[in-house]
Amino acid sequence: MSDEVASPAPSASASTAISVAVETAIGVAVLWVALVMMWGASQIPADAGYAGVGPNFLPWLVAMALAACGLTLVWQARTGGFTHLPEPSGAASGDWPALAWVVAGVVANASLIERLGFIISCGLCYMLAVRGLRWAEGKTAWGLRRAMIDLLTGLGIAAPVFWLFTKVLAVNLPALTGTGWL
């Protein structure tokens, strides 16, 4: 026999109280983000643009949807919580190298879009993000051929988007050349 004394497990009511507090805090945090977004949307001029919708419409729409989600989370936490949900599928922890590839793609896009133009920076972002998604699937073999196929696919997606926005919708996106086609 062992002389060790097992520490008592927390009571069910204590762990339930902690769970309710954490779940409520999550809902309140979402509400706080919604309020910050509402404040930001209120700083955008409401002058009606195309079809009577101003530039602050979408930020207000997102902020209101986020506020509804926050209120729902607080309500759920206070009326039984969302701890009775089934266990989520997938890995027990995040895949940090895969996330790093995706983040690298987004950061590269944001930092290079003015220098390389929309099409090339988005193609590079696609290539890096797909690398991260493949890494998350366990497919770590990644050669130059695969990288070029992914880059060309990204360019193939970004080019029509660029042309649609710049030529059809007259939205000014950063281009690589002065012609407006790249």
Summarize the structure.
This protein is mainly α. It has 5 helices and no strands.
Summarize the structure in words.
This protein is mostly helical and 182 residues long. It folds into 2 domains: 13-78; 96-168, no CATH class. The chain has 5 helices and no strands. It has helices at 12-42, 57-78, 96-116, 118-136, 144-168. Helix 1 runs antiparallel to helix 2 (57-78), helix 3 (96-116) packs antiparallel against helix 4 (118-136) and helix 4 crosses helix 5 (144-168). The termini are far apart.
Largest sheet: none
Catalogue the unreliable spans.
Answer: none
The gyration radius over C-alpha positions equals 24 Å
Order of helices and strands: HHHHH
**Structural class computed from helices and strand pairing:** mainly alpha
Mean pLDDT: 83
Shape descriptor: flat
Write the layout of secondary structure elements.
Elements: H1 12-42, H2 57-78, H3 96-116, H4 118-136, H5 144-168
Helix pairs in contact: 1-2, 3-4, 4-5
Search tags:
182 residues; 0% strand; single chain
